[in-house]
Fold NUDIX hydrolase.
Amino acid sequence: MAGVKKKWRKARRQVAALPYRFDMQGELEVLLITSRETRRWVLPKGWPMPGRKPHRAAEREAYEEAGLKGRISKAVFGTYEYDKRLDNGMVVSCEVSVFPLHVTGQRSRWPEWGQRELCWCTPHEAADLVQEGDLKLLLHAFIPDEVPALS
């Protein structure tokens, strides 16, 4: 088929932060950001980083993409899959490990400042905004009291 790139067979691994905080009334909020290319609502995520544990790589992505500071869980909360189109046009299946990040602050500027939109919303509102079915389920199930120890 002309113009159609083949899909990579083996799922590639990525890491994501699930940023959360409590508003002034004590209500749980999570942060979604837009992807740079498709402008879809997503979690801050990226490829694993050599020399960094997966939860630390997810923490770094949250800083680079949204300027977030906080305490990240060492344990995976859950995983989801999605298809990513690479720069060369190839589509790869990605399995994303999600690490909760209790947000304690946000910088006024960060590496990708101005390149994405940010949205603090309830987990249920966030689930309505994302496209990936398994991510929707993770957001609906997110209860910070059940988050493993933070680092």
